[in-house]
Amino acid sequence: MPLPLGDCAGRYTEEARQAGLEGTVVLDIVVGEDGWVRDVMILKGLGHGLSEAAVRALKACRFTPGERDGEPVAVRVPRFKVVFALRKPK
């Protein structure tokens, strides 16, 4: 199963930050043989641009490719989650 190489977190939109919106975007993705996300389907989204921010984050994130018989292959990753949580002031 492909694993993210680095942080694949979405960036908050200013609209979502001002609304205090937190939650999780759930997506089905396909990670290609090259480790880049090529297909994304939103299963559960969030408003204020956060669903779109999650898609942009995943398309910019590299993954380890899936393998079959030692060769890289495209793999569907069901229910991949991108969590949006506001940091609380210290």
Give me the secondary-structure topology.
Blueprint: H1 14-19, E1 23-31, E2 37-44, H2 50-59, E3 66-68, E4 71-73, E5 75-84
Antiparallel strand pairs: 1-2, 1-5, 3-4
Overall mean pLDDT: 91
CATH topology: TolA/TonB C-terminal domain
Q: Any idea what the shape is?
A: elongated
The major β-sheet equals: 3 strands, antiparallel
Indicate the percent of residues in helices. Answer: 10-25%
Gyration radius over CA? 14 Å
**Helices and strands, in N-to-C order?**
HEEHEEE
Helix/sheet category: alpha+beta
Uncertain segments are none
CATH A-level architecture: 2-Layer Sandwich
CATH class label: Alpha Beta
Strand content: 35-45%
Strand order of the largest sheet: 2-1-5
Number of domain modules: 1
